[in-house]
Protein: Phospholipase/Carboxylesterase
Organism: Colwellia psychrerythraea
Amino acid sequence: MSDNEYNLIAYHRSKGTDPFKHAELLANNVRELIKSGVDANHITIIGFSRGAFITSLTSHYLEETPVNTVLLAGCGRIVSKKYFDIKMNGDFLSVYETTDGASTCKKLQARSINLKSFEEISISTGKEHGAFYRPIPEWVIPVKDWIKGKSS
């Protein structure tokens, strides 16, 4: 996901990481970036699958300072009744594979009253969840374009 037009900060989380605690850590890191002068519009958080769950929690925790959020195959359990209180904030891009169980984020969008914008892209590679295991043009190009568009 790196690119010459933006700075990438990537975290590796350990197996068994508590998603709620990790999301709080990420939200605090974002707040520190903003406090140091980075415009919230120039910050994008992104996650895939379980990482997308953590990313959605991070967006939820950043209600007071919404940033750009990208979820890749992220609307499986986050749209379940168990997590009905989690809402997205700021600008939100969802990308999902049409053959995957983690599909549209329209339910999450509908309950997220503080969204500035919502875009959703479906890709059809036939690889189900595996479509996001490797950086393929079908999702990488539109995600990078979206990130660059938000920070310009």
The chain has four helices and four strands.
